[in-house]
């Protein structure tokens, strides 16, 4: 089927290109940094099972819903919802939830770039160390030879205490994101995804195999897959749901925006399933890459957000070939982060093009620049403004620094809100014939999807929203 042109006139050159870009958007820091951290903190197996259930019962229907809106709308998030509403005789005010999504993408990009900046720093440190290892004629030595454990773990604190260094890394990462997005859907985003995603998968598989050979796989498997249901508190379920939304890039209109560049509607259901499966597969593989190494060296799997930055570099010191492996590990995370950050910047950029009539470079520069500035606030929250609590009056965020406040507010409020409204819109307002023709689902699958999106998603995501805001309800 030949499509109408998008507002921006751009499009993917093939279905594979779209899948690579969408998987690239989904697979990011959420999979490699956050998922293993949460699994570690929430007791492993029980969390993983709930997470997988959330992905397939709630996430997958929402992925298809967002792609459907974009494919039909062929415009930025707001314009696409407006167009679907018009075709469905629904009020154009529904497009407001798209605007909330656009407004969420932008602060997420700000802190995402700061965290990716840490990854960039570690890639640089371990890259330089690997280079030294080569020069010293021992390329397969461990990482950071001769450095004490305290010194290795202290690197993170030193980085956080240095606003200039944090700023430089944030600048470089945001600059790369901006450069790619400004080049456009075809020459920028698609090209980056087609080179980077295959490289990502090769690296990931290589590192998992390394973990299997050198690490303690049995203990990692037991940790990740043995469910201890006594650990399943309502908070853990809430966290798993929130993580599923973040990991699949839902609730920020990212897949609406990427979906709008699809020219031919064929098998949107299968495409959505591939995205959900790939994203979940990468999260599990990331666990299988990290935990065997953590256990082999006898480190703490529940170290929290510092696991990747503080715990693992020490493990790389003691493991054979650690200089090379450590370097590749951070390059892997960096690649995952770039393909996600470009999707975050693309959302407001497309909005500027579609709704404001700006040129692509101008729109990318405005939003990338603004996100860069907000990111500076986040990174100052680790040093000069470490006492600042932006939403300190709100008990939920009473003791939360700037970066975590933005992360928490977007993750707990904006993403679930947009995801809930997306499901209500598609489940109750969108024209039924349109749903059937545009998704190409078989009648039986269509029925299941419509049930999940109309009933299960709004109720479950609504519950995350309410319990996320009022955690005392879960006690
Ligand atoms: N899904 C990304 C991750 O797991 O790291 C984060 C993200 C990217 C969220 C793009 C939203 C988005 F639009």
Can you summarize this structure?
This protein has 475 residues and is mainly alpha-helical. The chain has helices spanning 15-26, 29-41, 45-73, 77-87, 95-135, 149-160, 163-183, 185-214, 217-225, 234-247, 254-259, 268-296, 307-318, 322-356, 360-380, 402-429, 432-439, 443-469.
Tell me about this structure:
This protein has 475 residues and is an all-alpha fold. Residues 1-5 have low confidence and may be disordered. It is built from 18 helices and no strands. The protein has helices at 15-26, 29-41, 45-73, 77-87, 95-135, 149-160, 163-183, 185-214, 217-225, 234-247, 254-259, 268-296, 307-318, 322-356, 360-380, 402-429, 432-439, 443-469. The protein has one domain (15-474): Orthogonal Bundle (Hydantoin permease). The structure holds 4-fluoro-L-phenylalanine (PFF). 4-fluoro-L-phenylalanine (PFF) binds at residues 25-26, 28-31, 105, 108, 246-247, 249, 252, 254, 340, 343-344.
């Amino acid at each position: 089927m030949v499509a109408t042109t998008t507002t921006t006139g751009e499009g993917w050159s093939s279905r594979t290109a779209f899948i690579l870009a969408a998987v690239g958007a989904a697979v990011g820091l959420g999979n490699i940094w956050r998922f293993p951290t949460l699994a570690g903190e929430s007791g492993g197996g029980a969390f993983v099972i709930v997470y997988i259930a959330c992905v397939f019962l709630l996430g997958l229907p929402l992925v298809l819903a967002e792609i459907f809106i974009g494919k039909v709308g062929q415009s930025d998030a707001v314009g696409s919802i407006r167009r679907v509403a018009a075709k469905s005789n629904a009020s154009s005010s529904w497009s407001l939830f798209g605007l909330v999504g656009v407004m969420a993408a932008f602060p997420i990009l700000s802190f995402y770039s700061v965290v990716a900046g840490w990854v960039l720093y570690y890639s640089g440190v371990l890259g330089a160390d690997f280079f030294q290892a080569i020069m010293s004629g021992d390329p397969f030595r461990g990482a950071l030879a001769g450095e004490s454990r305290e010194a290795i773990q202290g690197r993170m604190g030193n980085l956080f205490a240095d606003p200039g260094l944090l700023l430089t890394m944030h600048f470089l990462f945001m600059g790369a994101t901006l450069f790619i997005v400004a080049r456009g859907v075809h020459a920028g985003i698609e090209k980056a995804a087609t080179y980077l995603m295959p490289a990502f998968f090769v690296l990931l598989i290589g590192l998992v195999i390394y973990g299997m050979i050198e690490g303690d796989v049995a203990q990692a498997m037991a940790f990740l897959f043995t469910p201890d249901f006594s650990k399943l508190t309502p908070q853990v379920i809430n966290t798993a749901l929130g993580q599923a939304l973040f990991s699949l890039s839902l609730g920020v209109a990212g897949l609406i925006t990427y979906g709008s560049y699809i020219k031919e509607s064929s098998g949107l259901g299968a495409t959505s399933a591939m995205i959900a499966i790939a994203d979940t597969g990468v999260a599990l593989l990331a666990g299988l890459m990290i935990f065997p190494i953590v256990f082999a060296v006898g480190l703490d799997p529940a170290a929290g957000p510092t696991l990747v930055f503080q715990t693992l570099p020490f493990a790389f010191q003691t493991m054979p070939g650690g200089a090379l492996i450590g370097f590749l590990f951070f390059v892997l995370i960096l690649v995952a982060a770039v393909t996600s950050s470009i999707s975050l910047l693309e959302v407001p950029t497309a909005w500027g093009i579609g709704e404001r009539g700006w040129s692509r470079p101008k729109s990318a520069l405005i939003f990338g620049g603004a996100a860069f500035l907000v990111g500076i606030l986040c990174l100052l929250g680790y040093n000069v403004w470490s006492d600042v609590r932006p939403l300190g009056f709100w008990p939920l965020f009473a003791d939360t620094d700037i970066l975590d406040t933005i992360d928490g507010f977007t993750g707990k409020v904006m993403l679930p809100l947009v995801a809930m409204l997306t499901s209500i819109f598609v489940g109750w307002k969108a024209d039924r014939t349109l749903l059937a023709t545009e998704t190409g689902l078989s009648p039986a699958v269509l029925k299941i999807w419509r049930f999940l999106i109309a009933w299960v998603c709004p109720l479950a995501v609504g519950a995350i929203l309410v319990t996320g805001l009022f955690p005392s309800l879960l006690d």
